[in-house]
Structures are given as structure tokens and as C-alpha cells.
Amino acid sequence: MAACTRRGVLVCLFFFLFGPSPATGQEVFPNRSLQIVVAFPPGGTSDITARILNNKLGELLGQPVVVVNKPGGGGAAGIQSVFTAKPDGYTILTAPVSIVTIPLLTPGAAFTLRDFVPLNIAVSIPNIISVHQNSPFKDLESLIDYARKNPGKLNYSSAGPGSSFHLAGELFKLETKADITHVPMGGEAPALAGLLGGHVDLSFVSLGTVAKHQKAGTLRALAVMYRQRLKDLSGIPTTKERNYPGIISAAWHGYFVHAKTPKSIANKLASALEKALEEKEIVGLIEKAGMLVENLSGQEAAHFLRDEEAKWSRVIKAANIPAK
User: How far is residue 54's CA from residue 321's CA, in Å, rounded to a whole number?
Assistant: First the structure.
């Protein structure tokens, strides 16, 4: 400031207050609003989670965080929009397992998992092996035993080829050596309706749905496809407890930025997400929406994604699920 002329004092003062950091020569991040791109329509679990988190993230980062829905192609459109956006940290992606499975199911896909850096695996919704309340199967063992002795006689519903229910069903088949038939229903609601109506023998239903229908006496949960028992279904054993530790399946939702995003910016975003997911109010809202807080960041998130990619690649190949 001492070097400024009298006529230039206002210009110098402006750059001193609002210009790049003199220590680093870089702008402070963030200095404008950010957006979270949801790769699915409003109302789904990705959207609900983003809208639970965005205000708290805005508080922690000091700038507004806006949720933008970009559905299409089973999540591909939204994921690709972040892949092609400027890698400056202002565009954050929230995506489920489709960020892993789309490249596995789509030869020549425009992106791969390695084109993104995981900030946080925020929440999960475990799948539950479920049958109709009037089903003769009272436990997982009797279901598997019957399926092995009567190959092809039992069937299960899914939202469609490559959906989370379908992948969960094929993982179940691979790990148990049980031969059950896949019945794609064209959506999660029809898949559930098929089970409730007795048109299929079983399905791999999400936590919130099963908890509601078990309480109503319309579905029977046989096993939780998760690493531990769930608060809302505390009486239902896990697949691990039933000696099938490899049958782990959950619809999870993570937060990502482009792989070329500066590391310091990615770290700042990851830290904000981790802090937000530790807030008691945020945890309560997520659990009320039928989800579990995972809050995996850094190496934990990277390790989780490597495991998911290896697992679903193995399932897709074993089941010979056709490319899209």
C-alpha cells in the first residue's frame, strides 16, 4: 500500500481487499455459488439427500449450494454433465451405484469411475431379501434350500435389467448357487406390486419399503443384505449371520467431483461434507427418510468404490447381463 500513488490508492485498496491471495496468487474457494447435480428426477433418494445437505454445506462453505436435477439415461446424463463441466469444484455430482455400473454395462461409455474423485459416500439404503407375508418360506435357509432343489421354479422381480434390484438378485444367485428366474417389471413400483400381488416369489426391496410393509403385515423380511442389523428391522438377521458374508447389497449415494479438480478444493469440499453428515439434525433427517448415514471419505470412500466395482463387474459377467 505504501507504494501506491495518491491517484492509485483506490485501485490498490480494491486489489488488496478483493484480489488474489498475496500468499498463494490463487482465488479463495469458493467465492460464488456451487451446484450439486442430481442425476435423477426430483423426489428420489439422491435428490432428497442433496436437499437435506445443501443448506448446511452452504453454511460451512460460506456460499449458496444449489441442487440441480439432470435426469436421463439411468443417471448417465447427469454424470456426463459433471464430467464435461469445468473441473473447478463448483459443480458437484451426487450419484448412486450407477456411476460404477454404467461403464460396466455400456461399452464405449463417455466416462468411467476413474474420471471422478469421491468426496464422500454419504448414505446407503440396504436391500432386504423379502417374500410375501403368505409365502411358505419363513427364513433364508428354507428359501435357498428349495431354490437349489427346484432350479428355475422360483422367480424374483426387479425394476429392470441392470437395476439395483436385478444386480442384488444376481449377486444372491451367484453366492448361494440358487437358480431363480429374473422377472423385470419396468420400475421399482411395479416390481414391488408384483411381490405384493403374489405374482413373484421374492424380491430385494429397499429398507424403507420393507419396514413399512412388514409393519403392515404384507411382506416378510428374511435377511438384511448389509454388514449389520438395522434399527428398524432389529429382529431380522443379516446375510452374514446366515453364513453368506458376500451377499452385501445397498443402494448408496456418493458425492464426486471431476478427477482434474485441484486437490485442495476437493479436500475442502470433502471436509464440508464430512462435517455436515456428523450434524445430529442432518442424521435425523436422513434416517427419517429411510436411509443410513455412511459418511465415508478419503481412503475409505476410495476403498469402498474399488470393492463395489470389483463386485458388480463379477456379477455382471457371471449373470451375462447384456450391455445397454
Answer: 36
Q: Where are the beta strands (DSSP E) in the chain?
A: 34-38, 65-69, 91-95, 116-132, 155-158, 181-184, 202-206, 219-224, 250-258, 292-296
pLDDT digits (tens, 9 = 90+) for 74-108: 899 999 999 999 999 999 999 999 999 999 999 88
Euclidean distance between CA atoms 216 and 210, whole angstroms? 10
For residue 152, give every residue at least 6 positions away whose Cβ sits within 8 Å of its Cβ, in sequence order, or none: 179, 180, 181
pTM listed for this prediction: 0.88
Give, in degrees to the nearest 5, the angle at Cα 257 between 251 and 262: 150
What domains sit in the chain, N to C, each tagged with a CATH number? 32-124+250-319 (3.40.190.150), 126-233 (3.40.190.10)
167 near 140, Cβ under 8 Å? no
Secondary structure (3-state) at 40: coil
Q: What is the DSSP string of 83-97?
A: HHS-SSSSEEEEE-T
| Residue 107, pLDDT score | 87
DSSP 8-state class, residue 208? H
Task: Mention every residue, 6+ apart, whose C-beta is less than 8 A from residue 258.
Answer: 82, 83, 85, 87, 91, 115, 116, 117
CA 139/CA 10 separation, integer angstroms = 77
Q: How confident is the model at residue 23 (pLDDT cuts 50, 70, 90)?
A: very low
